Amino acid sequence: MTRRLLLGAFLFHPGGAHVTGWRHPSAEPDRHLDPDFYADFARTAERGVFDTIFLADGLYLWDRYPSGIDHYSQVRPEPLTLLSALVAHTRHIGLAATVSTTYNEPYHVARALASLDHLSGGRAGWNLVTSRYDEEARNFGGDAHLDHSRRYERGAEFVRVVERLWDSWGDEAILADKVSGRFADASKLTTTDHRGEFFTVRGPLNITRPPQGHPVQFQAGGSPAGQDLAASTADAVFTRWQPLGEAQAFYAGLKARVVDHGRDPDRFAILPSIRPVVASSRAEAEDLAEELLASTPDTLIVEDVSHTVGQDLTGRSADEPFTYRPDTDTSNESRSPNRLAEWSRAADRVTARELYARAFREQTVVGTPQRVADEMEARFRGGAADGFIVQFLTLPSGIHRFVDLVVPELQRRGLTRTGYEERTLRERFGLERPRVAASIGETRV
Ligand SMILES: Cc1cc2nc3c(=O)[nH]c(=O)nc-3n(C[C@H](O)[C@H](O)[C@H](O)COP(=O)(O)O)c2cc1C
Q1: Residues 377-421: pLDDT tens digits?
Q2: Is 125 in contact with 95 (CB distance < 8 Å)?
Q3: Structure confidence by residue, pLDDT tens digits, 177-202
Q4: Among the residues of 200-243, which ranges form H helices?
């Protein structure tokens, strides 16, 4: 079978993946709660034969610094609600929602994702996150998160329970026999009867097994604990964009972990994010990138960098050099490599603007459709990616440009699909429908 490059269309802030993409002349910030805005996003991704759309999410408003409210466009619909609406506007594309295992219960999540899978005919995906920022903890009865490692332990138990709930109903359990009056065959139903460290869940689920058996599971943790959970349970991983050598090392390391867990590395996709700034000429693309970078107000640059490096730089100008002396421990938020902190540590003195621009530059691929396709192809063929999560810096213009300019180039090279052949998202990822789990600890009703 030809190996195809997988494509996911990323959506977090509706103004685009660049923090002030909403200011771009093409942006439509007055439509960020308009269903047609999102229908256009999903249909455009489907026109580009993307495998899935992917809605990122967090359970908070980033307001630890004033510019979070003053300059950031954070208002957006809740992912599962939005995806349910998008079912009616799309026919083939996967619909993946980010759902936290720290601030939900497995029964809710199993039920909602099974519903989305049924309503979409097998297109649901779950980006399992353990939640990152303390702002989220404060919305759920605490001041700070559970410890990083405990969040992953809870996540591991959470996903086991969800899978067993999805397996509640055998495929032939519903009889709906009007003559005999028997609606269901109780012998084909399994209670979950889970009693674990974090959850007690009897089951069974009040919706039949999802068409995919289990909706496709994504994760994005980059720490050893995050990678281990993904390697043991996920079908695919989203990662940061990294320089090629680091991306290859990450790819090889994570595939080795998958093998260590007794799983097939070819049935486990690694999807780095890519932020293309594309135009028909290199100069035009460079101008667009510079225009976007310049659209970020200095206060937001200083406050964004303050958060990322864990050092309060407010009150300084974006051009005032500082020496790295962090005053906040951000290790409970994330144990993925922190590039800005590494650069700050390595430099004697550095400014917030330099760090911000360097991160922007390192994360973006600026140029013609051919240049963007070259970069994607090199990583796909060079052991660094099985596909990409495309982050559009401006919306809706970014996705339109990518689909009109880059997708035809990828298709011409035979890298991506030109039409939808498989029925479900699982099949598109080359995954089998899982068999119902062995009945350890389960009882028949
Ligand atoms: C491409 C990508 C997308 C992500 N999307 C989300 C998201 O939607 N919600 C979230 O809480 N975290 C998201 N994350 C963050 C990760 O889930 C995780 O919290 C972070 O990598 C820190 O975990 P770690 O300490 O295991 O590395 C994303 C990360 C990446 C690389």
Answers
A1: 999 999 999 999 999 999 999 999 999 999 999 999 999 999 999
A2: yes
A3: 999 999 999 999 999 999 999 999 99
A4: 224-233
Q: Would you say the CB of residue 58 lies under 6 angstroms from ligand 1? A: yes
Residues 333-358 have pLDDT tens digits of 888 888 889 999 999 899 999 999 99
Cβ(332) – ligand 1 distance below 6 Å: no
**Closest-lying ligand 1 atom to the alpha carbon of residue 219:** 17
Q: What is the pLDDT of residue 1?
A: 62
CB of 76 shorter than 6 A to ligand 1: no
Q: Which residues are annotated as a binding site for FMN?
A: 57, 98, 148, 152, 223
- Is residue 221 lining ligand 1, measured as CB closer than 6 Å? yes
Q: Using the mean position of ligand 1's atoms as its centre, give its distance from the Cα of residue 222 in Å.
A: 8
For ligand 1, say whether the CB of 43 is within 6 Å of any of its atoms. Answer: no
Closest ligand 1 atom number to CA of residue 55: 8
Other Cβ atoms closer than 10 A to 182: 12
Ordered structural domains, the chain, with CATH: 6-282+364-444 (3.20.20.30)
Q: 3-state DSSP helix/strand/coil percent for the chain, to nearest 5? A: 40, 15, 45
Asked whether the predicted pLDDT for residue 443 surpasses 60, the reply is no
Q: How far apart are CA 360 and CA 341, in angstroms?
A: 15
Q: How far is CA 52 from CA 47, 108, 352, in A?
A: 12, 23, 35
Q: How far is the CA of 160 from the centre of ligand 1 (A)?
A: 20
| SS3 state of residue 319 | coil
